[in-house]
Amino acid sequence: MQIGEAAEATGVSAKMIRHYESIGLVPPADRRDSNYREYGHDDLHRLGFIRRARDLGFSMDQIRDLLLLWADDRRSSRDVKALTKAHTHDLDCKIARLQDMRATLDALVEACNGDHRPACPIIDSLEGHLHHHHAG
Question: Has residue 113 got a pLDDT over 70?
């Protein structure tokens, strides 16, 4: 199976497949006589694993660790669970930051009259943050 077919079968773009190969997440595909990459069942299985892990927001480093655990028949599920719990903690932190951003934006939207006049607390707030950033 060539890269386009592998991409279609796994939902991972050809560009990402090449990227995963370049960073060692996926072993380089075998090359046929025609010099086209040839992807087999194991490659598709690995790409599907990576895609599902990415869909759950795992980082490339975490996926690398998960792949090692997946390949290790003597792995401890404790290690898989610990890695996943660390990831859910990171997600909780991101969710809290997003909720803070949303609350700030909601307050700014509420404070803005949204009429024909130029006065706008949203712009004022951004302007203040930009000035503060340059001063720092």
Answer: yes
